[in-house]
Structures are given as C-alpha cells and as structure tokens.
Design brief:
Low-confidence stretches: 1-15
Shape: globular
Number of helices: 4
Order of helices and strands: EEEEHEHEHEEHE
Number of domains: 1
Distance between the termini: 4 Å
CATH class: Alpha Beta
CATH architecture: 3-Layer(aba) Sandwich
CATH topology: Glutaredoxin
Helix content: 25-40%
Mean pLDDT: 86
Structural class: alpha+beta
Length: 159
C-alpha cells in the first residue's frame, strides 16, 4: 500500500470531497451534511459489467458495518437507475450523478472516466484510498482500515 501526500487528481481545500446529488426518492443529499464516518463512494452504471459484479460487496458492506457508509453514485439517468434498483438490491444510499459525469469523476481522482471508480473518504471527508475497476471485499476491508488509520495519523493512502 502506497502512502501519498494526496491521491492523484485531488483538489486542494476541505470541500473537495463534497457534492449534492438527488436520491431515488427525490431528496437532495449533500455529502457534508451526513454524520461523519468513513465513507465509500462508488461511481457506477447499470450497463457496466464490473460495476454490477461489485454491487453485492458494497451492499453487504453497507449493511454489515455501522461505522462505514456506502454512497453509490449512478452516472446515468434516474429512470435507468430506478429500473435497475427494481431488479438488483442496491446499497441504502443511491444518488444520481450530474449531467456531466466526468466533472465529478475528475474531482475524485478519475481523469479518464473509467468505471467503476471507488474512493474511500475518512470521517473528515478526505480522500485516502481509490481504485478504478472492480473492487473486492478484501480491497474494501484493506482500504477502510487504512483510511481509519490515516485519519488518526494524518496520512492518506492508496491501496
């Protein structure tokens, strides 16, 4: 696991890991308004096979740990996300991404727009681990542990 001053592509400032997006029930959710805890932000689309394969691990994580939050950001139309949610169980917090998905992906260290893209934030919303491509339960466990440790040591990591 590499220790970095900041993840590649991260912007300076305390609000770099903040956004406000619409949920499937129509409410707007601002990341910074949620109670502080380690947060896994996963960017995905329902027509992306690796995105679909990793959703069960993310859902399991969201139900298995009260100290970790999973925010699934669907980079597609709301109707597509709603239809997919009727077929596949999703994490409790599912948001629809902006009209320009590349803008939010770049803010979270993904310059190419490749999906899936997962970023783990400390409880202070500082990006500390990221991965482009399908994540495993083992990667999630390692990243969450590193981000919990990073919050206490002031370091950021990228497993």
């Amino acid at each position: 696991m590499a220790i970095l001053a900041a993840p590649p592509g991260a912007q300076a400032g305390p609000d770099r890991a903040d956004f406000e997006l619409g949920s499937l029930d129509g409410a707007w959710i601002r990341l910074s308004a949620l109670p502080p805890r380690v947060t896994v932000v996963n960017f995905w689309r329902s027509d992306c096979p690796p995105c679909r394969r990793e959703l069960p691990a993310l859902r399991s994580l969201s139900h298995g740990r009260s100290d970790v939050r999973v925010v699934a950001v669907a980079l597609q139309g709301r109707n597509d996300t709603e239809a997919f949610a009727r077929e596949v169980p999703l994490p409790p917090i599912v948001l629809n991404g902006p009209v320009d998905p590349l803008s939010i992906l770049r803010r979270f260290g993904n310059r190419t727009g490749a999906l899936p893209h997962t970023v783990v934030l400390t409880a202070e919303r500082l990006p500390c681990a990221m991965h482009t491509g399908e994540v495993s339960e083992a990667w999630l466990a390692t990243a969450i542990a590193a981000c919990t440790d990073a919050a206490t040591s002031g370091r950021r990591t990228t497993p």
